[in-house]
Every structure is written in C-alpha cells, then in structure tokens.
Amino acid sequence: MKIKIILLSAFAASVTGCTTYHPLQLDDKVTLITSVSHLTVDTHTMPFQFLAAHKFDPTDGLDMTEVAMLAVANNPDLKLARDDAGIGHAQAFAAGLLPDPQLNIARDIPLQPGPGVVKSYSAGVGFDFGSLITHAASSSAGRFDSQKIDLNLLWQEWQVVARARLLFSRAIAQENLLRWLTDNRDLLAERYAKAKSALDDGNLARDAVNSTLSVWQDALRQVNDLQRQQLQTRHDLNALLGLSPEVELKLVTGEVVGVPDDKEVEQAITILPARRPDLLALKAGYAAEDARYRQAILAQFPPFNFAFTRSSDNFGVAMEGVAMSIALPIFNGNRGNIRIEEATRQRLHDEYQIRLDTAYADVKRLVADSRLIAAQLQASEAGLDTFDQASTNAVQAFSNGDLDWNGYAIFQSSRIARHVEVTNLHQALLENRIALFTLLGGNFDTRTIAMEKHQ
C-alpha cells in the first residue's frame, strides 16, 4: 500500500505543469508581400524613438523613415533573429532551473515462497545538493545571457535601419543620375548623327566621326550599367523589406540625415560603451562568462547526493535510513572546465577591447573622410555654378549661330558630367553620414528640408 501511495504521488507530481504538444504545420506557399498600399506598422513595436514617433502611411509613397519602419517590421533576417532570441531566452531560463529530486523504488518478489518470506521493497527520495552551490552563479549567467540576446537583436535592428536608409538613398541618387546620363546619351547620339550626316556630305573626316561614335557609345554604356545597378538596388531594397521582387516602390524624398558637429562626435565617442548595443551586448556576454567562470570554480566542491530511504526485507523487517554519495576530487576536480571558462573569459575581454578600439578608429576615419568629401563637393558645386551660368549664354549663342552644334554638344556634355560628379559626391557624403551615425550609436534623427540642389 505504501508503494502504491509513493507511485501515485510521484506520478501526480510529474504530470503537474507538463507541456502539451501542439503541431505547427509548414506552409509551401510563398508569403512575400506583393503590395504595400494596405500595409500597416505598429509604431509601439518600433525599437527607436524616431521610428515610433513617425507616421506610417504608404498610400502616398514611402519616405526614408517609413522604409526603415517597414524594414524593422518585416525584414526576414530580423524575423529569424527574433526566433533565435526566443531560443536564447529559453536556454537562459533553463540555466536557472534547479535539478529535479530523484525518486528510487524497487520491489523484490521471492521466486520460492517459504515460511515467513514476504515481498520486499525499497524506496528513497534524493536530491543533488551540490547544484545549490553553483545555482546562484548559473542563474546570474542566464540573466546576463538574456541581456546579451536582447542587445544583439537591437544592434541587428539598428543595422537593418541603416541598410534601409542606405538603399533608399542609393535608389533616389540612381534615379537622378539616370536622368542626367540619359540626357547626355541622347545629346551625344544626336551629335554622332549630325557628324555622320556631315561625313556623308563630305564635310567631315572619318576620324572625327569615329571620335563622336566612341563618346556616344561610352555614354550608352554608362546608362546601361546604371540601369543594372538600379535594378539591383531595387531588388536589394525589396528583399530587405520582405517584399516580392516585382513590387515597384514609390519613394518620396525630402528627408536628410542630420550632420553632427565635431563636439557632438567627440561626446558620442566618449559615451560609446554606454550607448552602442553591440558593445553593451559584449559587456553582458563578458559578465555571463565571468559568472560561468565562478560557477566552474564553485563546482570544485565535490558534488554529493543525499537521500532518505525506507525499505523492508523478505522477512518483513522495515528499515529507514539515509544515503549519501560524494565524488572524490582526485583526478578531475573540474580543473579542465575551469581552464576552459578562464580562457573563454579572456577572449571575450579582448574581443570587447578590440571592438571598442575599432569603433573609435572607424569613427575617426569617417570624420576625416567626411571633411574630404565635403571639400570636394564644395569645389565641384562652385565649378557647376559656373557651368550653369554659362549654359544660358551657350543656348543663346547656339540660337544666334555663334556656336556650332558640335561645340554646343561638347559644352552641354561637360556640364552634365559636372552634375553627375556633384550627385555622386552628395551620395558619398550621405552614405558617410549614415555610416557615422551607425557607428556612433546615434538616434538616426532626420529633418524635413527642401531638396538639395543638383539632385
């Protein structure tokens, strides 16, 4: 009867709180979004304040911030990262659990019954008390691991936002460039057609015609190359947003990345370890490993199991007692695990320092690069202003017959080349700013302004 009671109690305890199975079927259908007009984004789920404060309305097109919001909400890699975070939190939860107590039951039935011989039994409940020694360190490691998981996810979201803004800006810049390059191609095509006509009339040498043909073909190649780049950029942007490749996004310009001054950059570098999610994640990972190192040291204490037992022999003599087993730390003593955790902690220590040093060097490089691009842009814009001012005179001279078609085409082609140069420098400066804010752990603030000229 006592055995039955013990068995029923053990069964009831094991069933209580058990998780039941729920099937999760795979779907063989493609789930890529084919239209953005009906999409909504819950701003309360946005990880950054500037995203949460922005209105998402795709009916009138997507601006830079709306593209970033859609990327955070629908990026396929972020979906998997959030699933991985769920796994990591479950592992951290498991690390903080104590082992279950052990129940041992045995029943012996005599094969040859005799006078006074009865069925014997033994039962005992034990627990690994050694786990209590390391439980605090194990739980601490689990908590830090959870922090690391959340911070790594935040850093990945941070990078997706930067990638979305980068692809958005490239798509806009390529549209502007395509207009200039197309104008240049058409201009040079007309120049070649007139040169060929002059050749047919005997008014122009073959070498001069071949020269105009070569220039026109170079312009045509530039347009073709840019169209392929534009197609790739749009494809990459759709993939980042989890959209079907055939979706044609309407991108709305008007936002630019704010420009940090030197003082703001220096302040941001100073507090970089307290604001960049990847550095904070490395700190949490180091703290978790330090806790595991302490756990390994505490595990040097010999593990022991303690159990209460009750039994009855074949003659009906009942007995109660205790049982204890303890490991003798002669050959192992957990020394191997201690060395492993100590070496791992050292690596995480060095990884954090290297990441911090690299971040500092990258910021300094981007600041210097930004100054160089800004100076080049200023010089190019000054030259372009001269070209634009002379353009009116060139048109008038061509109309009056004071400038032939060939000279007019050469001048306009040179002017277009300057516009292309300025557009490329604007894009290089914008990409520099996006990279700088990403490295500084900035808040990606934007401000709505009039479109910059020459774009």
UniProtKB/TrEMBL annotation:
Pfam families to which the protein is assigned, alphabetical: OEP (PF02321)
SUPFAM superfamilies, per the entry: Outer membrane efflux proteins (OEP)
InterPro entries in the cross-refs: MdtP/NodT-like, OMP_efflux
Domain of life: Bacteria
Single Gene Ontology MF annotation: efflux transmembrane transporter activity
Family classification: Belongs to the outer membrane factor (OMF) (TC 1.B.17) family.
Name used for this protein in its record: Outer membrane efflux protein CusC
